[in-house]
Every structure is written in C-alpha cells, then in structure tokens.
Amino acid sequence: MIKLAPIQKPYYPRAEVISEQLLERISQNKNITRISKILLINPLQIPSKYFDESMAKNSRYFCYPPYGLGIVAKIAKSQGFDVEILDLNFKLISSPEKQADVKKCIRSILESELNRYQPNLVGITCMFTITHESFKDTVQDVRALMPKVLIVAGGVHITNDEMRIKKDIPEIDFTLTNESEFAFIDLLNMINRESKGGILTAWCAISNINKNSGGLCYLLGSHTTEEPAKRLTVPFVTHDDPFVSLEDRLDSVSWRLFQPNLNAGDVIFHHGNIWHGSTNNLTSNNRCSISVHLMDSEARFSDVDVNPVFNKYRKFDSDETDPSFFPICA
Asked: Which of 7, 112, 135, 272 could be bridged to 126 by S-S, CB 3.0 to 4.6 A?
C-alpha cells in the first residue's frame, strides 16, 4: 500500500519575508523610489526556442487572459496605484507571422512599453515550470532595459520553488507566494512607507481580573466590518447590563462577546480595529493594569474620532503626535 502525504514546506510569514527582502535591498544601496506606476507582465507561455508560427496560426497554443494579474491590478488600482498589464503571450500568439526572432521581438515589445509607461515597479508572473525559461528571459530583459526598476515575481512556479528561483534569477528583487494580492499591497505600502493606521495594544494585568472586576471585553469579528467605528456612549457603560442590547445596536449577530479572565502578569494583545472596552468594576478590589500602545510614527490625531484618553496629549492647534508623550522606537 502506498501512503500519500502532503509535502511539508516551512512556513515563512510573508510580512517578515517582505521586510527582510526590503532591508536587504536598502542595505545594498539600491535606489528605492516611491511606487506609483506598476506594470504587470504575463510572459510567453512556452519556451521561445520552441515557438512555432504554424501552431500559433492554427490556435494550438493556449492563450487565456492572465486572471491572477487582473485581480492584483484591480486591488492595486483600488488603493490608488496606476497599473497596466502587458500580456506578452497574447501579443506573440495573436501576430505570429511577425515573429521571425521571438526573443528579439519580446525584447522590442518590452523596450517600447517600458519607455512609454516608465513604471516604478514591474511584476512578472510565472505559473508553470515549462514557462521558467521565458519567465527568466523576461526578468533579465526588464533588468537590462531598466536597471533601477524594482522587479517582483509571483505565481505558482515561484510558490513551488521560491528559493531556487531567487538563486537562479538574482535580478528579482522581491518574491511573493500563494495568493498574494494583499501581500502585494503590503509590499507597496512598506516601500512607500505608508500605513493603514491603527494601534496595536499590549494590555498587561497587574491584578487578577475577571468580568466582574472591570475586565476587558472584545467583540470577536467586529474588525471585519467596513462601517466606520463609533465610540459607545456613556449610557452604554452605565447600563445595568451593557451588553443586553448590543446585538440590536450593532445589527450583527455574527459577533461574539469575549471576556477573558486574566491573572496578574498575563498580557493580552489586540488591534485597535476590534471593538473593545471595559465594564464597571463591581468588586471592592482595585483593577490595576498597564497598557502599551504601538502605532505608526506618522500617525495623526483624528478630528472625527476624538479619543478621550489620547487627546489629552494632543498639541494645541495641531494633529501631530508629540514624541514627548509618544516616543518613537528606532
């Protein structure tokens, strides 16, 4: 009997990998410019040396739209980036009679498009192992034509053998694996040093805390809403049972209330996007805790959501965060 088992591959957190790759490029003194224009390229889907004009004319080569690049482009555009897709596979197969020298033709197309569009970043996909040669040629052509442009590679082929591909094609600056449309946006924001904002909090209990002693409460799943968060008012806090009508008020039965019991010394972490707060302390004991907040160094005060705690430390007539109260971590 043959036993089948999935291939065990090491897990690499994408944020950490992206950070390492970015720091490596910076340490190499590579010119990292702000990304605004992105060119996504779908290479020829067969090795150029095997390209046959008669087969192309008889529609024997597959020529599907690059669906994955379309998704990446749509999401990147929704974030304000200017994106174009260059489908080399379609260009070559749709006009096979013009391709006397396929590699020279591809380089000519790339040169024309790069000169016209002048992207800050080029993303190149590779879906299959058979495409590796044309993928490699495309990467090297882009690097030769635009030495300073950032090159990002992704797709099934890269996912299956990321380390070998990076070693074989050192011209690649960044690699993204699996379904990486959101990781791609994270990469762009990291390069542009932009943040979606928010606060990461470490809440450390100094005394034993439970739901009757003013403990923390979380609404699990509340961070997924696209509605702007609204701070709950005083009547909610002073209500005998403040959570009795919460589902009706939030119009979401899918969120679940979580009230952890914490011993002195326990630490719980949460992001500011999740609804959280504390109930009244119904015991005779003091509730003691320390909160440490981590936020982007470029964070600004909001005129919409006026935080009753943080706004005590707001500069007069300014939205800046004063390093005297909000020290910057190097």
From this structure: 135
Q: What is the CATH number of domain 14-191?
A: 3.40.50.280
For the record, the structure tokens of 211 come out as: 């739901």
Least confident of 71-80, 164-173, 267-276, 298-307: 298-307
Q: Classify domain 199-295 at the CATH topology level.
A: Jelly Rolls (2.60.120)
- Amino acid identity of residue 316, one-letter, is F
Query: Dihedrals φ, ψ of 182, to 5°?
Result: -85, -35
List the one residue out of 226, 195, 214, 217 whose CA is nearest residue 297. Answer: 195
**This model's pTM is above 0.70:** no
Backbone angles phi, psi at 169, to 5 degrees: -125, 80
Task: For the chain, give the secondary structure using H, E and C.
Answer: CCCCCCCCCCCCCHHHHHHHHHHHHHHCCCCCCCCCEEEEEECCCCCHHHCCHHHHHCCCCCCCCCHHHHHHHHHHHHCCCEEEEEEHHHHHHHCHHHCCCHHHHHHHHHHHHHHHHCCCEEEEECCCHHHHHHHHHHHHHHHHHCCCCEEEEECHHHHHCHHHHHHHCCCCCEEECCCCHHHHHHHHHHHCCCCCCCEEEEEEECCCECCCECCEEEEECHHHCCCCCCCCCHHHHHCCCCCCCHHHHHCCCCCEEECCCECCCCEEEEECCCCEEECCECCCCCCCEEEEEEECCCCECCCCCCCCCHHHHECCCCCEECCCCCCCCC
The mean per-residue pLDDT over the stretch 192-221 comes to 79
